[in-house]
Inverse folding.
């Protein structure tokens, strides 16, 4: 695979990635504030309460994933086609629509303006520009190749991820219809189903980009046309439709839907982990070190795939899930997937997009190890506090909540310190990559 050098001086694919990193920095700051509020209950409650901080933190994390994934897909699509994108003006428009809307959403949270559902708690009117922006993404994507026939698997993954995201995002807003909103079980089922499918949709964008990057590093298209890659695609597509099953164990729905959904979700993770393992085993030393930073992030994602897979297997057992549901164990599973898998993969893409830089290589490496070691401690603390809370709720039903919090306080201190170290690691990586991004865009402008 020959590299493609863009000559575009206003490359909005890179600007999407930069925007994503800014949202990641916001996520980290808001996360630290939230952790402090566990240690000091009521901290900042008069002007920045936990009710505001939590949706800001969650939304900023989602915007990091979406922005970086969009930028990576469009950048890699240019490389795949060995040509600049058609309709670059629409990419620019999409950037401003989505970027402006994401910022407005965070501002409305800060002012206590809500009106949506969990994870999408912003006013429903702001769903309109998101829908428009994502529709532009689909149009630009489809206009940049003639046919899906004989395309590598990452094109199929990008295509289905883009289309299904729009479909499930619209589905997540069905609660605006009174007939849905006034029926509790129907409302909750659609809400959790759509959110699970949204995660599956952006996973398709990220996993597709991962396979593209592995082919790029190896210098051939062995993995994007392999049988296992197509198995990942079909399982991922099925996952889009059913991976939400574990969310509804407590709802009166058909048991087979729940069990099939989690089985497929775990199988997809297992196959994805296997393809990274086989890929790294086949690389020679020269190829590894010519893309050392991306290679390192891909390997970290592989480790987190298997760690999260183990937790997912435990959570898939209904009897265990009953105790885990609504505790920090679920948060730990989410953090393992969001930071350990998705963020590691996105950072691998970004390191590749902005290239290797000798001056920042040591900083990125140090940040990488700080990030992963502290993330493991952070993850363990979430799981531990989740099980302790479960024990108190089921074995001591007459407990006083403040007594539970006091008993968990030592774990919260470790939770905060590990989060602080993780933030330092992230910041070291992000600022090094941002410095490269600015330098690369400036060099492009001079050409």
């Amino acid at each position: 695979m020959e590299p493609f050098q863009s000559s575009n001086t206003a490359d909005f694919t890179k600007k999407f990635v930069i925007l994503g990193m800014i949202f990641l920095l916001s996520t980290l700051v808001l996360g630290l504030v939230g952790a402090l509020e566990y240690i000091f209950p009521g901290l900042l409650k008069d002007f920045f309460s936990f009710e505001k901080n939590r949706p800001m933190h969650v939304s900023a994390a989602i915007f990091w994933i979406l922005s970086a994934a969009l930028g990576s897909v469009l950048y890699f699509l240019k490389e795949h086609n060995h040509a600049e994108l058609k309709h670059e003006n629409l990419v620019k428009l999409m950037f401003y629509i989505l970027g402006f809307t994401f910022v407005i959403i965070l501002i409305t949270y800060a002012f206590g303006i809500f009106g949506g559902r969990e994870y999408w708690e912003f006013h429903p009117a702001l769903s309109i520009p998101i829908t428009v922006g994502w529709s532009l993404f689909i149009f630009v994507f489809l206009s940049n190749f003639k046919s899906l026939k004989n395309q590598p698997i990452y094109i199929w993954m990008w295509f289905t991820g883009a289309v299904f995201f729009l479909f499930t995002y619209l589905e997540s807003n069905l609660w605006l219809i009174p007939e849905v909103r006034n029926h509790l079980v129907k409302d909750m089922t659609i809400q959790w189903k759509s959110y699970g499918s949204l995660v599956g949709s952006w996973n398709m964008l990220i996993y597709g980009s991962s396979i593209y990057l592995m082919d790029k590093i190896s210098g051939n298209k062995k993995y994007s046309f392999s049988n296992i890659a197509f198995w990942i695609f079909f399982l991922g597509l099925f996952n889009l439709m059913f991976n939400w099953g574990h969310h509804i164990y407590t709802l009166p729905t058909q048991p087979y839907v729940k069990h099939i959904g989690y089985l497929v979700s775990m199988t997809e993770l297992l196959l994805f982990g296997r393809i990274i393992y086989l890929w790294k085993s086949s690389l020679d030393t020269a190829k590894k070190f010519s893309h050392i930073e991306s290679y390192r992030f891909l390997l970290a994602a592989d480790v987190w795939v298997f760690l999260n897979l183990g937790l997912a297997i435990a959570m898939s057992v209904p009897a265990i899930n009953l105790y885990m549901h609504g505790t920090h164990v679920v948060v730990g599973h989410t953090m393992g997937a969001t930071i350990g898998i998705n963020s590691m993969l996105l950072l691998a893409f970004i390191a590749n997009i902005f290239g290797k830089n000798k001056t920042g290589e040591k900083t990125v490496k140090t940040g990488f190890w700080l990030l992963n070691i502290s993330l493991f401690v952070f993850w363990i603390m979430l799981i531990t506090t989740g099980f302790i809370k479960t024990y108190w709720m089921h074995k001591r039903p007459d407990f006083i909540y403040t007594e539970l919090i006091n008993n968990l306080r030592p774990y919260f201190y470790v939770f905060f310190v590990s989060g602080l170290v993780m933030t330092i690691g992230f910041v070291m990586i992000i600022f090094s990559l941002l410095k490269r991004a600015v330098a690369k865009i400036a060099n492009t402008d001079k050409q």
